[in-house]
Design a protein that fits this description.
heterodimer, A: alpha+beta, Beta-lactamase, 7-stranded mixed β-sheet, 5-stranded antiparallel β-sheet, elongated, B: about 150 residues, mainly alpha, about 60% helix, rod-shaped
């Protein structure tokens, strides 16, 4: 009997062992199957997810610590469809306070896209609107009646670029779009620095596995060389000048010629950077965003200072060299005449600059020869980018012998600024060599970077020495004397200024020049013995007068007087007295 | 022989005592596991709660930083160039003319050389000095030891 039970027991054990082995084999088979991998992936997807933490975009300050670009809180407003109980009230509150279409919001809440449990209704709601909605939601939530209710309405704050000065220096700053990418100006040039590095971390859904939220370092803040008050003053002068001289557009740049710091850069049109969506309505193309660096033009007689600089540097002429101006000169089979079609007789080189004689400067260029002339123009930086730290710079065009579209007459016309294109900033960069003892500076807007509580100042950079220091001193003096002799409208009482006007005819698309419209320009700097500012004025197609001497020159004077006050530059007599003590 | 049997009988455990001993050992093992499980649950739940509290504090810091940035921008808006000019005009001020400016010679005065906007270095919090023995759980310690075999179990 016992033997019989023993066999039964052994049989049962055997069956159970076989079943156990089969179960184990099945478990292994399931674990190794293709479906298991899919299930594992599905499980991992529910374990948690990657979350990206974006750093706060670096701020932009002017050189005196005024905030030009900061950040402000905006809210993402959404509806949690799993908790919403009164879609009508939610849609009504959103439509009234966030300026949304009621029917659209209501319909989306009632018929959300498949698989959606959270519906975003506004990405950039203001703090004020959200504060009101939050109060309303709380008030309705405390009410005893279940409806009306804003349950399910959620608010998530985040930072967005904001420009407290609105349109001030908009051409310099550029803007940041909704996705956080910088466009134009400093915002685009230094986008990587300003934006910082986002950090991505894996966040588990398991409540017991709370991972640490990383400390994301903010983007680098920038201190610009721009002086906010001077920028404001210059923009105001420019706007008034456009109206006064009935010009279509204009540019005024103020730069320190000793180190290339751009103190102010005004151009039209400007836009409120907080409403960058209007960009398309204001600008036809990207080059118009900042005409000071993006729009090369034929500058006219301001180029004569470079022709004269080249001639002085090679020893071809000196200030007392005389030239008999007969009113016309032949170059490459083409007759070139003065601006007034007149003959000015015997002139020395100061007189040639003072009366802005095309014939004289053409003669100087022909005496230099193409190789010398274009060699100097190249060294002054024409045809090259200045390297200014703003996005959207254009290089202009310097045709040289050998180019398919270069003709011998170009040597003559280029000498007085026709047939050559350059941006206002390129001309200033070249002229900085004259104001700065022969050393040309690289224009820049970045003064310093702020990171981790430390300030890193950016040293000035020099872009070569196209002329000798004695040549620069001689030309400085010639330009100052020519302005004084001419009793130019550009003169600034109490300060000795060097400079040159420019009036350039505008080429038409057909290749001819439009004689009725001009570009009026003036470049000047001062005080001559210790230049602390250089100002460039460009007025496009002024109709009150076509001459730079009657439009751009007085604008220069006004801008210079404002600059002198805001930069605390004492009159020459006071300054020289101080130096003598 | 009889003597031996008697001695064996006298000193051998009664069957019920052997049974009770086995039950006691089993219960002790169960109790040990229960204690370890309770300890594990306590430590992990406390770690989870502290982790969540740290998360909340970090979020509060982020919110405060965002608020700071927002207020700074708002302050800049209130002191913007246009706003300050408007307020100055309302108070009766006007822009100075070049001929009205007087320059004084101040012996020894050195003009500022350039802007410095970097914040003054504040007090640096001392580095955390609590040794891990006071903060890590038994399981954390065990895990660390197993994952760094060169250190081994000591």
């Amino acid at each position: 009997m016992r033997q019989q039970y023993a066999w039964r027991s052994m049989l049962l054990n055997g069956i159970m062992a076989v079943v156990a082995v089969l179960i184990i084999l099945q478990m292994v088979r399931i674990q190794a199957s293709a479906e298991a991998e899919a299930f594992r992936e599905q499980a991992n997807a529910f374990k948690g997810g990657y979350k990206t933490y974006y750093p706060e975009r670096g701020e932009i300050y002017d050189r005196n610590g005024h905030l030009l670009a900061g950040n402000q809180i905006v809210y993402e407003v959404g509806v949690d469809l799993t908790t919403v109980i009164d879609p009508h009230s939610v849609a009504m509150a959103v439509s009234v306070n966030l300026d949304k279409d009621f029917d659209e919001v209501y319909s989306e809440i009632l018929n959300p896209p498949p698989g959606i449990s959270y519906l975003v209704v506004d990405n950039f709601a203001s703090s004020e609107a959200v504060a009101y909605l939050e109060d309303l939601k709380k008030e309705l939530g405390e009410s005893e009646n279940p409806t009306p209710s804003l349950a399910g309405l959620e608010f998530s704050p985040r930072l967005q670029r904001s420009y407290p000065e609105a349109s001030l220096a908009s051409n310099v700053l550029g803007f940041v779009n909704r996705e956080g990418r910088g466009y134009f100006g400093v915002e685009e040039k230094y986008n990587d620095l300003l934006a910082g590095n986002p950090v991505q971390v894996w966040v588990p859904n398991d409540p017991n596995r709370a991972v640490e939220i990383p400390r994301v370092p903010n983007g680098t803040s920038l201190i610009l060389t721009i002086n906010r008050d001077l920028q404001d003053a210059v923009e105001e002068i420019l706007d008034r000048s456009l109206s006064e001289y009935d010009a279509q557009h204009g540019t005024i740049i103020v730069m320190n010629p000793k180190n290339g710091e751009i103190l102010a850069m005004a151009a039209t049109p400007r836009m409120d950077l907080n409403n960058f969506e209007n960009y398309g309505a204001i600008y036809d193309n990207a080059s118009e965003y900042n005409r000071a660096i993006g729009m090369p033009y034929e500058p006219g007689s301001v180029m004569k200072i470079f022709t004269m600089g080249a001639a002085l540097d090679t020893g071809l002429v000196n200030p007392n060299t005389t030239f008999l101006d007969t009113g016309e000169i032949q170059v490459g089979g083409v007759t070139i005449r003065n601006w007034d079609q007149a003959a000015w007789g015997v002139q020395n080189m100061v007189g040639c600059l003072q009366h802005s004689l095309n014939v004289c400067l053409t003669w100087v260029a022909t005496q230099l020869g193409p190789q010398n002339f274009y060699g100097y123009m190249n060294r002054f930086g024409f045809g090259h980018l200045t390297g200014v730290d703003m996005s959207g710079e254009a290089a202009g065009r310097l045709k040289v012998p050998g180019d398919a579209d270069w003709y011998p007459v170009d040597l003559g016309t280029n000498s007085f600024g026709q047939g050559i294109t350059a941006t206002p900033l390129q001309i200033m960069t070249g002229a900085s060599a004259i104001a700065n003892q022969g050393h040309m500076v690289t224009p820049h807007t970045l003064y310093a970077m702020l990171r981790d509580g430390h300030q890193f100042n950016v040293p000035p950079q020099y872009a070569g020495s196209p002329i000798r220091s004695d040549t620069a001193a001689t030309l400085n003096e010639m330009l100052a004397i020519s302005l004084e002799n001419e009793a130019s409208a550009a003169l600034v009482p109490g300060y000795r200024i060097a400079g040159k006007t420019g009036t350039a005819q505008i080429p038409t698309p057909l290749g001819f020049y439009d004689f009725s419209q001009t570009n009026a320009s003036f470049i000047g700097w001062g005080p001559v013995d210790d230049p602390q500012f250089m100002i460039y004025v460009w007025l496009e197609r002024p109709s009150a007068s076509i001459w730079g001497s009657q439009t751009a020159a007085p604008v220069f004077s006004e801008a210079a007087q404002k600059t002198i006050i805001l930069l605390d530059i004492p009159p020459d007599s006071v300054r020289l007295n101080m130096a003598a003590r | 022989m009889n003597t031996t049997n008697r001695l064996n009988h006298a000193y051998s455990q009664a069957p019920w005592r052997v049974q009770r001993q086995w039950v006691s050992i089993f219960l002790l093992i169960v109790l040990g596991f229960a204690m370890i499980a309770t300890l594990y649950l306590m430590v992990t739940s406390q770690a989870g709660i502290v982790g969540r509290e740290i998360q909340d504090l970090r979020l509060a810091i982020m919110e405060t930083e965002h608020m700071n940035a927002d207020l700074q921008t708002e302050l800049a808006r209130l002191t913007s160039s246009n706003e300050m000019e408007r307020q100055a005009r309302e108070l009766g001020f006007r822009a100075v003319k070049p001929e009205e400016v007087e320059y004084l010679y101040v012996p020894g005065y050195i003009a500022p050389q350039g802007p410095t906007l970097a914040a003054a270095p504040g007090l640096q919090p001392s580095a955390p000095s609590t040794p891990p023995e006071y903060t890590q759980s038994l399981l954390d310690w065990l895990n660390e030891r197993l994952q760094t075999p060169d250190r081994g179990l000591r």
